[in-house]
Description:
two-stranded antiparallel sheet, 5 strands, 4% strand
Amino acid sequence: MSKLFKGKDPVLLLIIGAIFVIALFSLYSASHYPGSGVVKNFSVQQAIWFGLAALISVLFIMFGYERWLDYSYLIFGLNLFLLLLVLLMGNTHLGAKRWLSLGLFSLQPSEFCKISFILAFTKFVSDNSNRLDSFKTVLISLLICMVPVFLIIKQPDLGTALVFLPIFFVIIFVAGAKIKHLLFIVFAGLAASPFLWNMLKVYQRQRLLVFLNPNIDPLGAGYTIIQSKIAVGSGGLFGKGWLSGTQSQLNFLPERHTDFIFSVIGEEWGFMGSVILLGLFLLLIKYLLSIANTTNDQRGKFLIAGIVTLIWFQVFVNMAMTIGLMPVVGLPLPLVSYGGSNLLTIMILISLAISVNVKRKIF
């Protein structure tokens, strides 16, 4: 056990703790109704999930990332099976099948597929690192990526499906794939965009059109982004104060405890509060990259490249969509948005990065 703590950076743990404290205050505010004394206890429930995630993370660190990589293909295969089960017998909410009911709680396999894909893809590129200059190998790796993307789009969950693409490009680029092969895939994807547009659900097309002009449907698809921009903009430099945001407290802002939690932070804590939160995420990414830069294990480098890409992509897209710079695609803000599956996913991925650090410091 003493070896376990040699790899833990106290600054990294403090950063995670600081982000989560912000999350608890924000979730309490997002579920508070002034004058009624009603609180839905989102913050309490999230704190319970955080405690559970912390315990599971310790187990992941003790088990070691190398062992998880050894079993990654099996884990990935089981995860794909769960995604199939979701399509066949998952719970439907707001027109989407994304959860499996397990009695006391629901499981979102698409969230955990982020972990299994990063592990399996890291193992694949590590095992085939001497063949990545071949376009055939790159296409096979793309096929591995597109299987979960296709299953998740069918739920439908476009936001989560999109996460896998930057992870694919970053890991395979770091592993040594040729830039011309990756550019060919990008341009082929752009050429296929009319076909991909026809594959989207009607509400997904509407979200993209609303991104270009929210006022084309101000009371429908454009309502949430309009209210979000009002909330963030009205926060000013220092915000309106905790529990004092009118857009959130008066229930104008939908999904404020999940996808639009950053709007609550922007309104109540203002530009300075938003910058502090963004700064904490940048510090988190910096420390994870420092682990990748100091390890001699290529698999550890590839693994952390995928983890950092996931965290950065979700932070960027979530914050950008709340201020109208990106379409609304339903991506939660890591460690902040309410939801056990997403919180557990991010904590497990960070614990895998810490386990890379544990091995480096022990050996």
